[in-house]
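Worked example 2:
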Amino acid sequence: MCLFILGPYLNEGDSEVLLAFTKVFQIAYCDIFKASSADSCRNVCQAFVDSAKRHMPTLLDKQKTHLLLHLVDCMVQFGPSSAFSAERFESFNANVRT
């Protein structure tokens, strides 16, 4: 849906990166992960990094962009990212800091 709203304002490269990212997002936040789909998921993550390299090279400066290349290996080992992600718990750090 984001592409439909932002599409007229994005150039072709930006659209390509955003579309690739939405595919990675679907993998990262899936509820069920099948190890049999690991290779295709790796290809999706690699396609995002390749697209970013071509159109938004500053994204490659971020460590999390590189970590996406290892996401599928972690999902094969531990299951969906919700099984091992600390993201939810880290959000409570804001309460501790205040």
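The radius of gyration is 15 Å. The CA atoms of residues 39 and 72 lie 8 Å apart.
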